[in-house]
Predict the structure.
Amino acid sequence: MAAEADNRSALDKPTLEAYVRHLLIWGPQIEVEISDPQPSDLDGFSIVNVRGSAGQAFQAASFYVSADGKNILRATVYDIDQNPFYKDFERIDTSASPAMGTAGAPVRLVLFTDFQCPFCRQEAEMLRDNLIKTYPDQVRLYFKDYPLSAIHPWAKDAAIAGRCVYRQSEDAFWEFHDAMFAAQKEITVSNLPAKIGELTGALSGIDALQLNRCIENKETEKEIDASIAEARALDLNSTPTLFINGRKITQQLPWANLKQVIDFELDYQETAQNAGDIDCCSVKLPTPLGQ
């Protein structure tokens, strides 16, 4: 028995899988994927990523494995010279996302959300009521779709429609966003097309023919799928999930608590200046107004 234990190594995938299943109580109904060992920031250890999934539900974990495979660490390694949240901050692509607030603001918020999720509705209402009113110049909020189709059967089609609106007008998208969440309790799978037609029909400055074609052909589905893939790569398994300059917040905070986090980040960025929105990639005429 001792000799058998001496030969065990966490660098062997079946051995690590058995260990993790016991550690996390993952039964046979959970599919386990284990990555190849990769170099890590911790000397003498490789990093191995483990993912357990059952349908759309999943849980991800990273383990640091010693060179001889005998020791495992489940920890986050921080570099004292770097913002502790910068890795996630850098991984989120906001280049094609609806946004509100000031471009180049010191605090960037990214919200992964779902039009059918009641907690997302509450979060949306809180942010729309308070965020820009309280921070007219200091924040920039980006909207990211993460429809959880396994439990919210009409959420993805609503996200596709929202993206079709956004293709024509960012202002109209936010009108649609507010109207969709306001109507959430009335919407079902069967009445969704009619409800989307009703809500989009009230939008100003929209080419209805072009919009309807986009929605019917699901022309923006690939954009939604890319946003879902990004959320999963960030190990998100719930909505709403909010990132504040890379700091992940999975619980729904009251506005007073969320404001404290934003204020803390504003104070920090006054000296750190290592996060925030990037006012990038626009070309403006050299007028006195910069417009």
